[in-house]
């Protein structure tokens, strides 16, 4: 990778009044020589920790209960990188309980969740491809900010990153005339049979996609979303339990600087090492979260034993809460088949056992959160 050439700058509109330079990345689909000792060491560590996480996830009973929360956690973190302010608890509230000034943020998070779920389902019949990118991007931007920026369609105009105008832009991606060739190359590279480790391929694909910036909006979110999809397709993950957005959010400046450094000085090794270190850190955190979930689950199931005959209904409620940790009495009533008064009493019992906590401070239309469980995802 020491001979990696990221690309070159091209001049567009050779008229002094409108002239600008965009970056045209070199095509990816070729052979690479991995000869950096530090890179190979981190690659080995990343492959090992990711394998351990995947194996651990496969051994957890009823892991589907917890996957939705992993996806919500990813959607909140990825959206925050783009400037939204919604936190995990707000993201899990019903739309009616969201303040008007942050409802757009809430909508973007929920679109991300739906886009991720649909993409995972679509992956069963559609491979990683431009087609899947467009379909997922359309879902991501539909009905929220960015809905007027051609959801699901490649841009047909120049975009830029940073700056009030193209003249003050921090980075100008390739002109739209190059998009079809670049994205076809991106797709071919992912599916080629060259002897390139999958995690190196994945890191190169993410760098290249963010450099191409093929859509008018949502490029960061869709690029991060596809990291998980590619890990699933490559069979490095059997269930979607690893997401890098929290690592990128925590190291936001380093994330953008690492991408910039490739374009500016061809230093791809530092980007690959940064990306792989993110895999290592995130895989360890995700495994710890799963371990803590199992400890908490066992503790909660021990607490409800004292409820006697109602313990069975409490267990059904707990199973629901692992998927949706914010609940109201009406939902408990639907789950349990009990009357309203009995459901209300069950909620009181769960509050008394310090499993649930009321979060509205109201006497009516109250909402309760399983805070201990939610906190496991907030502190990842």
Automatic annotation (TrEMBL):
Domain Fido residues, every copy: 128-277
Q: Name one Pfam family in it.
A: Fic
Q: Which InterPro entries match?
A: Fic/DOC_N (IPR025758), Fido (IPR003812), Fido-like_dom_sf (IPR036597), Fido_containing (IPR040198), SoFic-like (IPR026287)
Taxonomic superkingdom: Bacteria
> What Enzyme Commission number(s) apply to this enzyme?
2.7.7.108
Q: What class of enzyme is it?
A: transferase
Q: Where is the active site?
A: 213
Which residues are recorded as binding ATP?
Answer: 82, 213, 217-224, 255-256
Quote the Gene3D superfamilies the UniProt record gives: Fido-like domain (1.10.3290.10)
Q: Which UniProt keywords apply?
A: ATP-binding, Nucleotide-binding, Nucleotidyltransferase, Transferase
Q: Does this UniProt record's set of keywords contain ATP-binding?
A: yes
Catalysed reaction, written as an equation: L-threonyl-[protein] + ATP = 3-O-(5'-adenylyl)-L-threonyl-[protein] + diphosphate; L-tyrosyl-[protein] + ATP = O-(5'-adenylyl)-L-tyrosyl-[protein] + diphosphate
**One annotated GO molecular function:** ATP binding
Q: Per the UniProt record, which residue ranges are transmembrane?
A: none
Function of the molecule: Adenylyltransferase that mediates the addition of adenosine 5'-monophosphate (AMP) to specific residues of target proteins.
Give the record's subunit note.
Homodimer.
The identity of this protein, by name, is Protein adenylyltransferase
